[in-house]
Amino acid sequence: MATTAAEFIQQSLDDPETFWAEQARRIDWHKPFDRVCDTSNPPFVQWFPGGLTNLCHNAVDRHAATHPDRAALVWVSTEVDQELTWTTSQLLQEVMTMAAALQELGVRQGDRVLLYMPMIPEATFAMLACARLGAIHSVVFGGFASTSLAARIDDARPAVIVSADAGSRGGKVIAYKPLLDEAIALASHEPAHVLMVDRGLAPAAVVEGRDVAWSTLRARHAHASVPCAWVDATHTSYTLYTSGTTGKPKGVQRDTGGYAVALAASIPTIFDGHPGETWFCTSDIGWVVGHSYIVYGPLIAGMTTLMVEGLPIQGFGGQPDGGIWWRLVEKYKVSVMFSSPTAIRVLKKQDPALLKRHDLSSLRGLFLAGEPLDAPTAEWIRDGIGKPVIDNYWQTESGWPILTLLNGVEPAKTRLGSPGKAVFGYRALLLDEHTGEELTGANQKGVLALGYPLPPGCMQTVWGDDERFVQTYWHSIPGRQVYSTFDWAVRDEDGYFFILGRTDDVINCAGHRLGTREIEESISGHPAIAEVAVVGVADALKGQVAMAFAVPRDAARVATPELARALEAEVMKRVDETLGAVARPARVRFVSGLPKTRSGKLLRRTIQAICEGRDPGDLTTLDDPAALAHIRGAADAA
Ligand code: AMP
């Protein structure tokens, strides 16, 4: 038995079969697996093939059998002023009811169910109900608008879409149904049914024969008993879209058994979370953090998960309350909390006394992920709440942390600015971008890559496109078949990694990943725009924000500052309407040309350097130096 974190990690690399067979005992298997790991077809890997299990059984049923009265889900909404709790047995019934409703709408094992939902408990019921039936859920973040949604509908080809009339943010109702109807009209694939949760927040048009009310089916199936479908460990549990370097989002495809084992292993070792305790993750179910650490992870581990709809600075009754999260920690005796650096930077604008006003004695640690955690933010919150603050680095693709500390195995010291070391199961490498050579020296900058095979829980492939999976992730570094994270990193002499930003055209805004190409495609769809470049620029609050440099078709459209402002507003509106406000650039600046290489490749990194006041580096490939001057002028004006 390993006693130190280093031994634990070493064992996972030296003898993965034994290590993961041991971890697999953390979940229930209906039938044991034939093998721990099938590596006969690299870069693909199958974890626990032949084993039959079910995510919902492990998250709900097994705990309902042993602890029927233990709280499983607490939902708090400061948007609609509600606080509700479901015990494991009540959650089981809700999930079975939802599963019966989906079955009535024709959902069968392997079918896709797309969820376009706000942070309401029905979203959790629907995810678990899909897992129960062996249906594949695909949650689309509620902040995305119709064009983004339509692209995902066409890729996932769902049998059913589950949605709601509206979400609410800061008291402002955001109607979902019109966006959904528009997306379905734009998409070539048409779902057979839309299951609608009516929150009574916004009127929603009903398409006869297609749209069905959750309240009707819920009443009909209130006492339904729907057994779990025992699926192979390699059965796809869900797809989740994420941005890449092309305009087309990638459906990250995840298995069942490997994911359950990875999450079950991560909760005690990384997060030091234990059955019967309360877990509070402030993310959204539309992101991978929400999948792994609002829904599946804590529930599989027998913890109570606290799901919150509301802003971090908003209390009940529409009152501002910068201490709402700490109030909830006290009330629900949260022991593990998971949030993002951006959320903490929002809190930083509040009175620090709010951090001391509540009894946080139940809380053991605050975990932050999704974007680089700057030292001042880490120190501010650590000192403010007097608890360890632990950075963890991962991606939609990995499904669980890649770099962090294993405090549950052995208490470890955090190093400011570093998420920590490679987690068990991950063969982390730093490679030279051009030669593929491994960089073993301290503080050498390289691309963070992961050796084959990826551990359980990581993506199986890109949904419907194995070739894209292989080409995108496994062929980007010359001469090596390794998985690229597309992040730059260095490692210090003690093995602590420091992430230095993306190697590709993906930006990270408030912990949300956005593809600059997607935003560019949306903006170039505006009839007045000839060409556009979107780059991520450092921002004190959100980490990065998108900034657009657009070339108008007709210079007269931006002849005066008023005209330019009007066109900027139009462009932003277009992004809101097609991709969603989440992708809206912070600024749109108009220029007469964009810097490109002689072969026509847009020099995004050069533009980004100029915007951030850095040296743009080697400009020998630049075609027209005047274009650079335009960007400089526009960036200065911004
Ligand atoms: P996503 O797939 O949306 O979760 O985005 C993953 C990307 O976010 C990573 O590839 C990193 O660029 C960034 N990221 C996530 N967590 C961290 C972290 N703890 N520190 C630095 N960057 C992070």
From TrEMBL:
Residues covered by the Acetyl-coenzyme A synthetase N-terminal domain: 7-59
InterPro entries: ACAS_N (IPR032387), AMP-bd_C (IPR025110), AMP-bd_C_sf (IPR045851), AMP-dep_synth/lig_dom (IPR000873), ANL_N_sf (IPR042099), Propion_PrpE (IPR012694)
Molecular function, one GO term: ATP binding
Domain annotation AMP-binding enzyme C-terminal: ranges: 518-601
Keyword Oxidoreductase: no
Record-annotated AMP-dependent synthetase/ligase domain positions: 61-450
PANTHER family: ACYL-COA SYNTHETASE, ACYL-COA SYNTHETASE SHORT-CHAIN FAMILY MEMBER 3, MITOCHONDRIAL
Identification of the protein by name: Propionate--CoA ligase
Organism of provenance: Scleromatobacter humisilvae
Lineage: Bacteria, Pseudomonadati, Pseudomonadota, Betaproteobacteria, Burkholderiales
